[in-house]
């Protein structure tokens, strides 16, 4: 990946997040990055977010001679995007799909026999090197392809390899997860405003509280319940807040949220 053309089909949010993260982490040279997108505004945004990168209307132009092709269109457009790319794909091309729900089998079926396919589910914090991704190798992808993908994803956050049957669950948890957490941060901020904090102070306190708590889980390796107990003084403020949180059903709502998003990912793959 340090050398070689990298082509994104679709120059939207996720292509921009991944390409931007890779350039920032020096995993890719911006001039080697190409993207195709029918939307001129998306092309403009991609090129201005990643100075030196090339965004074009035609997929054939973006993918020709690419070492790695990343399918980064909405799942509904995957078929047509792959049809445009297929003539330029051969055994030398590594095809990485980030499309939610779209199975390796259906990607491979749209490409020449023997295509090397890796399915990935990243998330938007890849843009700032804090992504959480999972990936799965297709039948013709090599262990070197696996190392390459792990290196790319590792440069923009953490990544784990999982069997393909679990990638819809990953989509429901970490792929979509940033949106849940933004909602939590926004709601905490509103709570702060309700009790008298200026909005900007409340937002900063809420976001850093979420970031700090997540870092505690990651860095201490302690169970979240143990860490919560340390915050929760007998007869204190936290237990008063937690009692209300349980009455509101946050825990079961979040469980149902992940399950609903996983179901939707499965539907997109049918
Ligand atoms: N957003 C996220 O947090 C995550 C998204 N994903 C997956 O990444 C993929 C991209 O999502 P996201 O970046 O959010 O979507 P976006 O809509 O931001 O980007 C997709 C882009 O692809 C363009 N496009 C449509 N058809 C084609 C085509 N045939 N050839 C080339 N470009 C095309 C779209 O143009 P137009 O708008 O005109 O249709 C759009 O600009 C999806 O499959 C999604 O499931 C995975 C993980 C996280
Ligand atoms: O909402 C979606 O479908 C995509 C997939 C994961 C995050 N965003």
TrEMBL record:
<dbReference type="GO" id="GO:0004735">
    <property type="term" value="F:pyrroline-5-carboxylate reductase activity"/>
</dbReference>
<dbReference type="InterPro" id="IPR053790">
    <property type="entry name" value="P5CR-like_CS"/>
</dbReference>
<comment type="function">
    <text>Catalyzes the reduction of 1-pyrroline-5-carboxylate (PCA) to L-proline.</text>
</comment>
<keyword id="KW-0028">Amino-acid biosynthesis</keyword>
<dbReference type="InterPro" id="IPR008927">
    <property type="entry name" value="6-PGluconate_DH-like_C_sf"/>
</dbReference>
<dbReference type="GO" id="GO:0055129">
    <property type="term" value="P:L-proline biosynthetic process"/>
</dbReference>
<feature type="binding site">
    <location>
        <begin position="72"/>
        <end position="75"/>
    </location>
    <ligand>
        <name>NADP(+)</name>
    </ligand>
</feature>
<keyword id="KW-0641">Proline biosynthesis</keyword>
<dbReference type="InterPro" id="IPR028939">
    <property type="entry name" value="P5C_Rdtase_cat_N"/>
</dbReference>
<comment type="similarity">
    <text>Belongs to the pyrroline-5-carboxylate reductase family.</text>
</comment>
<keyword id="KW-0521">NADP</keyword>
<dbReference type="InterPro" id="IPR029036">
    <property type="entry name" value="P5CR_dimer"/>
</dbReference>
<feature type="domain" description="Pyrroline-5-carboxylate reductase catalytic N-terminal">
    <location>
        <begin position="5"/>
        <end position="101"/>
    </location>
</feature>
<keyword id="KW-0560">Oxidoreductase</keyword>
<dbReference type="GO" id="GO:0005737">
    <property type="term" value="C:cytoplasm"/>
</dbReference>
<protein>
    <recommendedName>
        <fullName>Pyrroline-5-carboxylate reductase</fullName>
        <ecNumber>1.5.1.2</ecNumber>
    </recommendedName>
</protein>
<dbReference type="Pfam" id="PF14748">
    <property type="entry name" value="P5CR_dimer"/>
</dbReference>
<comment type="pathway">
    <text>Amino-acid biosynthesis; L-proline biosynthesis; L-proline from L-glutamate 5-semialdehyde: step 1/1.</text>
</comment>
<dbReference type="InterPro" id="IPR036291">
    <property type="entry name" value="NAD(P)-bd_dom_sf"/>
</dbReference>
<keyword id="KW-0963">Cytoplasm</keyword>
<feature type="binding site">
    <location>
        <begin position="9"/>
        <end position="14"/>
    </location>
    <ligand>
        <name>NADP(+)</name>
    </ligand>
</feature>
<dbReference type="Pfam" id="PF03807">
    <property type="entry name" value="F420_oxidored"/>
</dbReference>
<dbReference type="InterPro" id="IPR000304">
    <property type="entry name" value="Pyrroline-COOH_reductase"/>
</dbReference>
<feature type="domain" description="Pyrroline-5-carboxylate reductase dimerisation">
    <location>
        <begin position="164"/>
        <end position="268"/>
    </location>
</feature>
């Amino acid at each position: 990946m340090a050398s070689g053309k990298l082509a994104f089909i679709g120059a939207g949010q996720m292509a921009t997040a991944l390409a931007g993260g890779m350039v920032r982490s020096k995993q890719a040279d911006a001039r080697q990055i190409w993207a195709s997108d029918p939307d001129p505004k998306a092309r403009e945004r991609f090129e201005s977010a990643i100075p030196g990168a090339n965004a074009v209307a035609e997929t054939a132009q973006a993918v020709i001679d690419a070492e790695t092709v990343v399918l980064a269109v909405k799942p509904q457009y995957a078929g047509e995007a792959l049809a445009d790319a297929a003539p330029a794909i051969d055994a030398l091309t590594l095809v990485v799909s980030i499309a939610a729900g779209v199975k390796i089998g259906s990607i491979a079926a749209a490409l020449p026999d023997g295509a090397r396919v890796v399915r990935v589910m990243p998330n938007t914090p890849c843009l700032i090197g804090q992504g959480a991704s999972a990936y799965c190798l297709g039948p013709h992808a090599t262990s070197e392809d696996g190392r390459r993908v792990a290196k790319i994803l590792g440069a923009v956050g953490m990544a784990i390899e999982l069997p393909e049957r679990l990638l819809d669950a990953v989509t429901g948890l970490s792929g979509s997860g940033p949106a849940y957490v933004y909602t939590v941060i926004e709601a905490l901020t509103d709570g702060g405003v309700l009790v008298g904090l200026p909005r900007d102070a409340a937002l900063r306190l809420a976001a850093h509280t979420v970031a700090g708590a997540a870092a505690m889980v990651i860095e201490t390796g302690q169970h979240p319940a143990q860490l919560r107990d340390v915050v929760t003084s007998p007869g204190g403020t936290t237990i008063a807040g937690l009692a209300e949180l349980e009455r509101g059903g946050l825990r079961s709502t979040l469980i149902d949220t992940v399950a609903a998003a996983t179901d939707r990912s499965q539907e997109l793959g049918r």
